[in-house]
Amino acid sequence: MTPLAARETWPQNKVLKGIPASPGIVIGPAHVVSDKYKVQINRYYLTSDKQIAVEIDRFRDAVALTREEISTIKKSITDEFQEHAYILDAHLLILQDKLLYDATIRTIQYERINAEWALQEAVHQAQILFSKIADPYIKSRIQDVEDVSQRVLRHLTGGNPFDFGKLTEPVILVIHDLSPVDTTQMSVAKVKGFITETGGKTSHTAIMAQSLEIPAVVAVEKASQEIATGYTLILDGLNGTVVINPDAKMLDIYVQRKKKFEEFKLDVGKSSFLPAITLDEHQTQVLANIEFQEEVDLALDYGADGIGLYRTEFLFLRHQRLPTEEELFEDYRSVAQMMRPKRVTIRTLDIGGDKFASHLEYAPGINPALGLRAIRFCLKERTIFRTQLRAILRASAYGQVRLMFPLISGIQEVTDARRILAEVQEELAREGHPFQPDMPVGLMIEVPSAVMLADLLAKEADFFSIGTNDLIQYALAIDRGNKHVANMYQPLHPAVLRMIKQVVDAGHAAGITVAVCGEMAGDPLYTPVLLGLGVDELSMNALAIPVVKRIVRHASMEEAQEFARHALQYGTVDEVNSYVTGIMAKRFPEVFMFGRELASAA
Description:
The chain is of the alpha/beta class. Helices cover 47% and strands 13% of the residues.
């Protein structure tokens, strides 16, 4: 099918910008999914109790049909999507969650409105809750709630999803939204890349695209209005650029860019499974951050030396109830066994006022980032904390497991947490459960008070891990979600560099290792600086590992230390940024060109 407009009126070299969700460059014809697949709803009021009962039954029937539909899709997905089956399980669980299910029925009853509108209201309330979440990985889970609700709405309105079987030739798909369930229906041979108008780089759809190596750009506003089926597109999943109907000159530029990127990717890939040893034989551990057990394979595929940060919130968020000790244990044991003999660092629950948990009745507070979260939450809700500690300790018998407490702000929190840990160890010993008695216990340094107390905290820890995402926000008083100040979020701020140096020095003086597990660790621009500051380990999104390893292997510790010394001398962000980018552009030109884009797309 071709656009109705005459070819000579087609736009040329028009550039659209979005968020890079899966790295790669692809050139090909567009296939735009029509607006008819978007769910259109209207509001109408119910005038009798009988109508209310009918609407509730309609909603329950639509949920049942959605559950049956997703279950059927799960049974039929091809081998290449099997490792993502857990996402479909999560969608099935969302259908039962009171945030969606109970809230919709309650809204139908009390506001006396139709099921479609009530469901939309329930989703809107969920969006408000998730908007207050600081952690981007947890925050992006609202997209799963939205995806599931759209499926239910289709059954309520009689709409049909797009049939991917209609694609007969390789295309770049342009669609308003693409859910993980939809993605499992794609033929990888037919979809060379995709562009959506919604979404983010940490969505489940983006994670699936990355593992399948399908280039993708998301959050491209009005893409389906700007692009027509038949247009030639350049999709650059490295920097989030889409070029519409490129001329010969533009096409040649991107053909060359694609060729150079593929060569760079192949070259970088050779470093993935090699140790990260500098030219003067200083070894650094390059680890992976994961959120789900199913991401372990991706970490191993990209050469991770271990898991430096296992975020454990997902199991607490996906159920309508709290997970049991056995459920947690089975999950942690599987990760430990899959990674053995490499180590796994499990962060205890970082949840509370700023993270949604439908089964816990907590008010979010005016400023949840400064409220009851992480170790504070765990020390208050000790039953939940003890259950997780029991599961982690039991899993430690099956691999190299380390435990890490998040958001530590002072000595008392460590003392209290360690006392509970010791009590749990005694319980397990009495019950005859095997566990690693000397399991290393680390602290996350994420707030300025922990930096100032680093020398004292180091005496209470087996290792440190600097969570730069939170540390930068707290140190600079910057909310990255606020567009008015987001540009002030600067990892190379002189204060941030000095804080990292102070923590590293304190850790080394006490004989413990220091890692960085925030996004800063996965940006190759910062790799030499962090090495030079003395950071022992870098933990990041798995896709960034090959690039970071390549830089480490092509640098010397001596030059990295000199690099860091110069960076610490500057007093402004602009000066540090100018110095670091200037040196990196000369020292690692190909990495500066593609490496940062590859890492940021991850």
